Amino acid sequence: MEPAAADALMRAITEVIGNASSVHSFGQLAKAGLDDARAAVAALIGAEPAEVVFTSGGTESDNLALRGAAEEVPATRRRHVIVSAIEHEAVLNTVKAMARHGWKVTVLPVGASGVVATDALRDAIDDQTAIVSVMHANNELGTIQPVDELAAISHDHGALFHTDAVQSAGKLPLNARASGVDLLSLSSHKFGGPKGVGALWIRRGLSLRAVMTGGRQERGRRAGTENVPAIMAMGVAAAIARDRLPASSERIAVLRDRLEASILAGVPGSVVNGASRPRTPNTTNISFDHVEGEALVMALDMEGIAVSTGSACSSGTLEPSHVLRAIGLPPSRVQSAIRFSLGPQTTDAEIDRVSTTVSSVVARLRGISGRRSEG
To answer: Strand 198-202 to strand 183-187: parallel, antiparallel, or no bridges (unpaired)?
Structure first.
């Protein structure tokens, strides 16, 4: 968390004690906190405050977008949803659930670059398609998708377009309305706010059925008392992230490129996945010949370096990355892949330490297995 966001969270926990739906002064203080945060989040993505609905995070935002849109479609019309093969599980598992309730689901393939081809959507969409969901940036590769073009194709066929922008908010300039999308998901902890809070941007004029029913909070689109302290902290983080763009992203991209170059030079048989296309500045995904990714994660953790074999939401499973499989990597390269994530606090010294440590740890693991790279 950003220190200023953490400070805002702690102050709100102790000082902002009212319910934002209450009319007394304590409630109005909480409502003012929500209003300020809503304005800050809207500014981060080029939106209007009234279009922002606060949620518990990216997963709920994705669910509200897809299920909420589906609930608004009459049962006799448009029972088709399209997603890409590299979506987060919050989207993929949601459409699987929709399929069990009679929805037709089409999963768009991606090429070796990790980017959805516009022609793939043109081939798949029809007059029964209700909504298309393609993430703005992939969480494992960082590859940026052509959401503007995909949204335009969707609208040409009368379908809505949703994008999961959890990985790009605060790292790339966003303008939700100018991009042509109808729905856009965010998660606070991806740009320095607390975990467990997020938002869904809903284009003005779009009708969306509430998935969580109850009171009239969030203009009737998401029932339940708002998590005011977390939302206020999210607003602080959003304002900081917006002020830092684009300078922070440019600095992080330089560090990311340096990390990749150092690892590729120092570790034979290493290769960056998805590097041929524009990516978010903070993410790199690298495979290492003859090394098990899980073993490398654990060995680096012992050195105080936290990396991942894929999405954190899928950690602990034995399933290989669906993203790396979708771009056609062979099983050996999928199993040996590691995702490195950088942030605004990452330093040059940390990059040097990580690249040096990775080189020595990979060499040690290859020695234990009796294998070494020919590369």
So the answer is: antiparallel
On whether the 3-244 domain is CATH 2.60.40.10, my answer is no
Contact 129, 78 (CB under 8 A): yes
Catalytic option among 127, 313, 315, 317 = 313
Residues 347-373 have pLDDT tens digits of 999 999 999 999 999 999 999 877 655
SS3 201: strand
Q: Taking the complete model, does pTM exceed 0.90, yes or no?
A: yes
How many degrees, rounded to 5, is the angle at CA 341 between CA 335 and CA 345? Answer: 160
Give the domain ranges of the chain.
3-244, 247-369
* Closest C-alpha among 195, 152, 158 to residue 55: 195
The fold adopted by the segment(s) 247-369 is Aspartate Aminotransferase, domain 1 (3.90.1150)
pLDDT value, residue 71: 86
Could you give the percent of the chain with pLDDT greater than 90?
A: 91
pLDDT of residue 375: 47
CB 282 within 8 A of CB 342: yes
- Residue recorded with tokens 């022609």: 119
Q: Please state the φ and ψ torsions of residue 361, each to the nearest 5 degrees.
A: -70, -40
**Count of H-run helices and E-run strands, the chain:** 13, 10
Are 194 and 234 in contact by the 8 Å Cβ rule? The answer is yes
Average of per-residue pLDDT across 27-41: 98
> What is the DSSP code (8-state) at residue 171?
T
Tens digit of pLDDT for each residue in 156-179? Answer: 999 999 999 999 999 999 999 999
Question: In sequence order, which ranges of the chain are alpha helices (DSSP H)?
Answer: 3-15, 25-44, 58-71, 89-99, 118-124, 147-156, 176-179, 228-244, 247-266, 293-302, 322-326, 331-335, 348-369
Confidence of residue 193 (pLDDT cuts 50, 70, 90): very high
Whether 313 sits among the annotated catalytic residues: the reply is: yes
Residue partners of 246: CB distance under 8 A and separation at least 6: 173
